[in-house]
Amino acid sequence: MRTTTNSGTRRAARTGPAVVLLLFLAAACSSAGDDGRVGADGEAKAPRTATGSLEEIAHRAACEPNIQTDAAELRQANCKTADGRYVLVTFTTDRGQREWINEANDYGGTYLVGRKWVAVGDEKVVAALRDRLGGTVEKGEQHGSHTGGSSGQGTGGSEEEHTGHHEG
To answer: What share of the chain is helix, strand, coil (3-state, %, to 5)?
Structure first.
């Protein structure tokens, strides 16, 4: 003869693991929904990495992009904000982006790298952009023969050194 207590005990035994799983998933989802601004140690973190078109990323960075290259494999724009000048480049493929970065590293500079985009500028400008765009900072190894400063090409910063070199 079954009693209500035995039936209730069996039901609890079957639903217990499901409840634990649901609690685990709820905890995981709530941490994934974190805006990424404060870490567990209380220090400020960069926001989630921006995605989208060149115009969408530029908008998030508070830049009105001056398009310089509009090719099938990449788009490039000069930007100027209160933080300074930089170049913003978007790519159609991850491979194209990595090849561009690998080649650009020979010219030195500081790069803010996101998914299918790169911002190139002075270290101070890139740090300010990271607060708005997220991403990771990479530094190129500058070799003396590649800089534009001694060639009389103007007073440009790193964005001018990189602009001509990387166009499609």
So the answer is: 45, 20, 35
Q: Give the residue carrying structure tokens 């080649």.
A: 103
Task: Determine contact, residues 104/142, Cβ cutoff 8 Å.
Answer: no
Question: 10-residue block means of pLDDT along the chain (168 residues)?
Answer: 55 46 35 46 71 95 95 96 94 96 90 96 95 93 50 37 42
d(CA 58, CA 150): 31
CA distance 149 to 153: 7
* Phi, psi dihedrals of residue 74, rounded to the nearest 5°: -155, 155
Map residue 4 onto helix, strand or coil. helix
To the question of pTM greater than 0.70 for the whole model, the response is no
